[in-house]
# Entry
Amino acid sequence: MSPLPHPEKPTPQKSVFHARGLTKTYDMGEVQVQALRGIDLELFEKEFVVLLGPSGSGKSTLLNILGGLDVPTSGTVHYLDQNLTAGNDAALTRFRREHVGFIFQFYNLIPSLTARENVSLVTEIALDPLTPEEALDIVGLKDRMDHFPSQLSGGEQQRVAIARAIAKRPEVLLCDEPTGALDVQTGMVVLDAIARVNRDLGTTTAVITHNQVISQMADRVISLSDGQISNIEHNTHKLSAAELNW
Amino acid sequence: MIRAINRKLLRDLWHIRGQAIAIVLVIASGVAIFVMSLSTYSSLDLTSQTYFDRYRFGDVFAQLQRAPDSLVSRIREIPGVSQVQTRIVKEVTLDVPGLPEPATGRLISLPESNETTLNALFLRDGRFPEPYRRDEVLASEAFMVANNLNPGDFIGAVINGKKQELKIVGTVLSPEYIISLGGGAIIPDDRRFGVLWMDDESLSTVYDMDGAFNDVCMTLRREASLPETLQRLDLLLEPYGGFESYGRDDQLSYSFLSDELSQLKAMSKITPTIFLGVSAFLLNVVVSRIISTQREQIAMLKAFGYGNFHIVSHYLKLILSIAGLGILIGIGWGGALGISVTEMYGEFYKFPLIFFQLDFRVVVIGVVISLLFAVGGTFRTVLSAARLPPAEAMRPEPPAQFRATIVERLGLAAFLSASVRMILRQLERKPFKTALSAFGIALAVAVMVLGRFSIDAINYIMEHQFSIAQRQDITVNLVEESDYSAFHALRNLPGVMHAEPFRQLPVRLRYRTLEKELSLTGLEPDAELFRIMNADEKRVPLPPEGVLLSEKLAEILHIKPGEEIRVEVLDGRRQTTKLRVTGTVTDFSGTNAYLSIDASRSFLQEGPSISGAYLQVDEREMDNLYRQLKETPRVAGVTILKAARESFQKTVGENMLKMNVFNIMFGCIIAVGVVYNTARISLSERARELATLRVIGFTRAEVSTILLGELAIVTLVAIPLGLIIGYGFSAILSSALETDMYRIPLAFKPYSFGFSAVVVMVAALVSGLIVRRKVDHFDLISVLKSRD
Ligand SMILES: Nc1ncnc2c1ncn2[C@@H]1O[C@H](COP(=O)(O)OP(=O)(O)O)[C@@H](O)[C@H]1O
Ligand SMILES: [Mg+2]
# Structure
């Protein structure tokens, strides 16, 4: 893989996300599902956070709210000085467009577009993007640029999704179970790519997983259970993806 | 550089190209019919209006017995009158070279100057007659063409009792005769009816009409009131044997054309609405499906900062590309059809020049309406795509809910195989969509039925009028009413096997404040040649006293059987009497009144007299008879029914054939559009399910049965529904097209229903087979692997 454009050492100081008293209740007619029950949370600049917790504990809900994909039932979220919970749909859209890169479990590539075109989809509406070629180079897919998703393996597809997420030079990278659909080997390649982006571009990164092992890569591990934060742990010694013990 | 999002659009379009083409064709058909009928309408309208304007077509017309020229100044004094033209008009019998039977000519006096006169002639070929030449005439183009005549040819004519040779010196067109209908005819017969123009002096001398006229025509100023003018003119003409005057709307050739125009207008509304409605439905089905398969793509786009507007415009672009292509093709196609249909009309109606105009407004309206349908039919679906909360769209759609169908709940489950159960459950799960699909196919059937309607109606009228009701071979009209010796003379002509007399009497019928002028027909009660028949082909007996009215006439006069009607005779004698209306007859053309020939005699207080006779003739003596009739001075005209029918069918038959081809094409386009789309969508929705069935051992045939069985059921339900809807549309069209002159019966042949059903079934079958091929070529692995 080629060298990255802005190598810098992360120093997690400044608070990027600042959430207070988040709750989220899904109204399912007769029953009400409490996905989040009062979450206070801080994400710092350039840090690598892993959100850990069993299925149904509210990780996706929390990440979606942070990324401006969803709004909480109560509570506030600030991104730097911007109050996300006060904004309307248009403000959230602008926020996502300018600052956030998403990576999903099922890649969510557009099957009718090539790898390069899937990335272009994002660079075309971003303010100061990398070129699609640069972004794909970062994830090591430069020579597969003109392939359609159906011609790529799962891991390759996920790396295209990472290229797509980082192409706009986002301030934050939000990943919802990025290795959930991949085998161990491929998962490692993908995690490594995410970690390198975090390290080399200084992108604040949150990764959801219910896999304990992955948390060893993080600066901090935030554990959720039943819609609440049950534990926060600082990693003194971060492992790289290759060092993980599966 | 095409933006990535637009590339996606293009590839999405390519992916659904089969469906998109089907929809494009449906839209194109709707737009084409719209543009075709309205551009033909506006072309004919422009052509005729320009013609009428430049050649000063009259606004008011009247016929009378004979009035002195001095009356003209008094006619001019009628308020609102702009220009007055008086003429001599006489019917004569013609002997046309190459035509065995006698033809009827209408001889009209030529005005002094064609430059300023009303109803000016357009000289197509040859020259105008020299002044004072009694043997030179102009002839109408339709007549010239039908008889293969050229300027310089001679024809014989019996003028005022004397046979004479006339030299045709020019071929002309007249705004009064864009279509030439001889007295009483309902269809043009240009071989046997021609209009001739002769020098005024000469004509008045021959007919002893010096300083007199028997026909008036005038134009009105803009502010004039037509009814008032008509009333005043009638008052002036009354002492001179005037028949009621009338405006353009009752002028034969004008009203023929305006009926045609209103038919085009009606056509521009009903059929395109069907097509565009179906296209809106198909677009909606396709777009809903695309959006539901692209939920996650939409969510992803939103997650990366594409706004609602982007999403909406993305899918709108998809819809607009399909609609836009359809509209473009439709406009081009409709324009081309418009030109050829206008030309077709140009052969039927005689204009000096035909202007084709593709009215810009028509195009704009067509575009706007089709876009409204396309966007209106899909906008809610597209909005719902934008409204998908991005977080929620990430989770796959919950599994569809199924339950036991009615049939199963009724306890019949044991009789159903698993495949049949799957088909029924699928149908019942989406009742609304199933109903819409059925409705769409039904509309295809309806379009076919609607197309057959005019064909059947015309055939029925021809059959009814020309072989069932009227069975005479020849109708002979005499110059003036004659006593029974004339009838005996006709009966004794060579070849005449059977003859029946008739009496025509110009009358005004009055009931309370309503009135109507027409020619009252006296018939023999037991007439076998001319029979008064109802639409249902039951004979209506002629009462010994009293009158029978056309149902339409009774409707106009608001009179019911049993009531008495006032009858005023309009030719000179002016008798009036009251007659009881004994019944009505549902007929298709004109407003007619019949009474027994004896009853007419008794109230006219005259001896037996006739206006003419219906003759049944021995085929072998035909030529002999014709020769005699041509030489008989008292014969004013001869109508040969079969000949008229044949010539009409030749002109119209060809056009009907074309129409039939169009209908089949349009019906198939809708049927294929609906069936193909429905099948493709259920294939896409159920690919996994069907692939799974294949994996667990179902054969291709079994899997196809599950997929196509659904469509077969929908099609079978749709067909009877479509027959009913088509019948309903035809009924609407038939009443929209009803005029005083024509009623169009809803007389379907069973064949037409069967034909419509079969065409649509075949179209459905073909599209089913195309989709079946897809099932046969299923790539099982990839279908199962794809996360849907
Ligand atoms: N759109 C939704 N409607 C109803 N319930 C939801 C919805 N999204 C999430 N939930 C519920 O909220 C809870 C938390 O879900 P989620 O945040 O997806 O959990 P996780 O990502 O930790 O597995 C679960 O019980 C889930 O069923
Ligand atoms: Mg989750």
Observations:
- The interface with chain A takes residues 3-5, 7-8, 11-12, 15, 296-297, 299-308, 389-391, 394, 782, 787 of chain B (CB under 8 Å).
- The pocket of magnesium ion (ligand 2) is lined by residues A 59-60 (CB under 6 Å).
- The radius of gyration of chain B is 33 Å.
